[in-house]
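We close this part of the discussion by returning to an individual protein. The amino acid sequence and the backbone structure tokens for this protein are reproduced below:
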Amino acid sequence: MPAESRTERFDVHVAGDGPVGCALALALQGSGLSIALSGDMAAGTAAAQQRAGAAVRPIALSYASRLILERLGTWSGLRSTPIEDIHVSEAGAFGQTRISRQDLAVPALGYVSAYDDIAPAIAAALDRSRTVCLPRGARPTATLTVHAEGVPAGDAVYKDYAQEAVVALVHADTPARGVAYERFTRQGPLALLPHARGYGLVWSHRRGTADTLLQAADAEFLAQLQSAFGNRAGRFVAVAERAAFPMALRYSACRARAGEISIGNAAQTLHPVAGQGLNLGLRDAWELAQRLRAATGREAIGSAAFADEYARARRLDARATIRMTDLLASLYVRDDPLSALLRRGAMTVFDLLPPARRLLARRMVYGASAWP
């Protein structure tokens, strides 16, 4: 259906064609609702091509996200590397814990993919005769507009962590073997995610220091990484695709009202310390799609009652994930003795008490949702 159909009235307009927006549009196909999806990729614009040429940004999808993508029929087409174990430690301190897929009896705790591969993999499954694709910024008439792009605006709560995340692809002399590392350093949290035969690096730094790392020669960058991380993954021998972005917490105090609902980053943008942002967004999309499919009557989906019911259904999962991520991000950037004691003690408890470790693993994989 051509883009000129934008003057048509739709039941649902999904503004944003990232992974969360595309997942919602795909989950609604066959629902009987008329759907419009707007964004650069949906419209095939030059901006989408430029984005495809950007630095690779590794991201962890939880096992729950895999289940969602399997139900959407898109998982098999997505390149990914499984995470079987997560090793958590702090540089120069006692206390560590290791979370394993056996803790939850799942094939993997999560999977690492390139962020910009995920939305195209989902979009490839869209039936373009059922979903009208419009350019970014299009505002067609719709009973319900779902905001799935950008960051929370208007009444959003904002917290600046005064940090930047340095992302890169790194290789060690020992191939990655399904282990993800979360290492808390003096600079900030450092995550190594198994990605193909190497690792996707997400390294938090205090604002102003990331530029130095981006401009450093490869040998100097690798030396600093080795010093901060240690030798658990072997000796780092290569780095590519370096980039940096600021980190902050933003979440909307009102994610839903009559005729408008925000999901994914448009509802909450999180610190990447626990890798929960996209996973929470996919759960947002799945829950909303199920409620839209179950709604009685097209006009009902634009009502305040529908918006309130959706907001209540997502409140526990969203709040729990936001608080967990913020606690981790805040606790591990503080240098005071009490914070140090709390984080080291927590790791020891999780390591020694399997029930506590399983609870942590379940929250990381499924959030506070009741499924699978």
